[in-house]
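subagent[fold] <- orchestrator: predict structure for attached chain, return tokens only, no commentary.
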Amino acid sequence: MVELHNLHKVFDAGKPTEITAVNQVNLLLTPGSYTVVVGANGSGKSTLLNLIAGSVFPDSGTIRLHGVEIQSMPDYRRSRWIARVFQNPLTGTAASLSVLDNFRMAALRRSTKWMKLGITNDFKSRVREQVATLGMGLEDKLSQVMGTLSGGQRQAITLLMTVMTGVEVLLLDEPTAALDPRSAREVMEIADRIIRENQLMALLVTHNISEALRYGTRLIQMEDGKIIRDYDCDEKSRLQHADIVSWFDYY
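subagent[fold] -> orchestrator:
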């Protein structure tokens, strides 16, 4: 369980450019929950993910993972439990390494032996089996350099790598924004399957109305750093595009 209590973050405090990015936010994420976050640019969506991931620290408030406060823990330590997929497909993988090498790096996230652990035949077989579930034919391209893959293929691989070490929280920061419509649909379906099969606590930030309506068990809207609307799965399923567009300030 992830609990955010009175989470607050201000940038450029005391300056003319001061902005309250996240304003006293309270949020509870439970195992298997899939929360979709929408809102205008500057509403606080990405800052909220940054706070949970540990790439930004709050000015006040607490973040608890299974009752343990982690708001002062750096992102590299939180990565044992919290994984993130970024908007840019180039961000989540090492472009100059092979597909298999990228999986090896992901698998070592929770290891203290690091690179002393080589790529064994057993590990290669396990990666091949997982990659085959994508249905993209990449299981026969494990030695291919990651940078030669398409954006959609890289995002799909990144999603698989996030669950290599048993993470519990998956943060998706507009993961399809840089993809063509077909690749975007494929990536979102893969993400949905991975989240449900692994009972992850997932948080998806999106500007896509269709994604907001189709995925997740909960839909929240942020504005000026606050959560101003909160729908559960049943309420979300009753929403029509016209209804949701009316409170998407950026449409």
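orchestrator: received. Logging for downstream: Residues 112-116 have pLDDT under 50 and may be disordered. DSSP finds nine helices and ten strands in the chain.
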